[in-house]
């Protein structure tokens, strides 16, 4: 199995990338629902499907509870979830209150890990490991072109586009929101403090 993509051409004649072709992700119209997810987990663990469904159904309520307490939630192998929001800017400090907060959202910072990709011999004779910072959930995803017209090209969420910065998929940048967006997602650094890249890029983030 693989993540499917189609080839699309940039037709914006105001863009520096005008005329270039890019791989663009497409998705099946079918969602993987809770029951199917539970069925798969049942094949990987010694837990009954009915018990898994019960836990998954309670997960949302548990996350909501801790969000209301102002907590971040870390799920091992998945990443960190936290609350973010947008706010209206005001001229006076005393007018800046909870009443100015508008859109609320859940922010996700994927868990990352170092993947060694080779070695490099330095001038002094020492050996340095070369590695990339990979997002745990997608590091093993493979990609395949599709010509299936039933698959969907999803447009980026307008609100998300307006409230996240343009982090790239290389280097140690962050995806901090611009303007009045507060609590925006940072790049996917690992638990050792190593920076990952922004979330606009696919595949691996280059380690610094």
Entry keywords:
208 residues; alpha+beta; four-stranded antiparallel β-sheet; three-stranded mixed β-sheet; 10 strands; 29% strand; disordered C terminus
Give the helix/strand layout:
Layout lengths: L2 E7 L11 E5 L8 H11 L4 H20 L4 E3 L3 E9 L13 E10 L1 E10 L5 E9 L7 E3 L12 H6 L17 E2 L22 E2 L2
Parallel strand pairs: 1-8
Antiparallel strand pairs: 1-2, 3-4, 4-5, 4-9, 6-7, 7-10
Helix pairs in contact: 1-2
Task: Characterize the structure shown.
The chain has 208 residues and is an alpha+beta fold. It contains three helices and ten strands. The protein has helices spanning 34-44, 49-68, 158-163, and strands spanning 3-9, 21-25, 73-75, 79-87, 101-110, 112-121, 127-135, 143-145, 181-182, 205-206. Strands 3, 4, 5 and 9 form a four-stranded antiparallel beta sheet that branches. It has a three-stranded mixed beta sheet with strand order 2-1-8, with no helix packed on it. Strand 6 and strand 7 (127-135) form a beta hairpin. The chain is extended, with a radius of gyration of 21 Å. It starts with a strand and ends with a strand.
């Amino acid at each position: 199995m693989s993540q499917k993509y189609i080839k699309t051409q940039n037709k914006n004649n105001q863009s520096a990338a005008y005329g270039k072709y890019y791989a663009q992700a497409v998705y099946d119209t079918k969602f993987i629902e809770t029951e199917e997810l539970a069925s798969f987990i049942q094949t990987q663990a010694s837990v009954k499907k009915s018990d898994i469904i019960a836990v998954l159904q309670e997960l949302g309520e548990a996350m909501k509870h801790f969000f209301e307490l102002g907590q971040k939630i870390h799920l091992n192998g998945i990443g960190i979830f936290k609350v973010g929001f947008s706010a209206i800017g005001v001229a006076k400090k005393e007018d800046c209150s909870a009443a100015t907060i508008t859109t609320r959202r859940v922010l996700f910072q994927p868990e990352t890990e170092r993947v060694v990709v080779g070695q490099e011999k330095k001038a002094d004779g020492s050996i340095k490991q070369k590695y990339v910072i990979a997002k745990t959930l997608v590091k093993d995803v493979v990609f395949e072109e599709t010509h299936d017209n039933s698959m969907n090209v999803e447009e980026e969420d307008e609100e998300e586009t307006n409230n996240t910065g343009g982090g790239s998929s290389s280097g140690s940048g962050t995806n901090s929101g611009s303007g009045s967006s507060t609590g925006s997602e940072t790049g996917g650094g690992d638990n050792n403090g190593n920076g990952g890249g922004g979330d606009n890029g696919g595949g691996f983030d280059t380690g610094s």
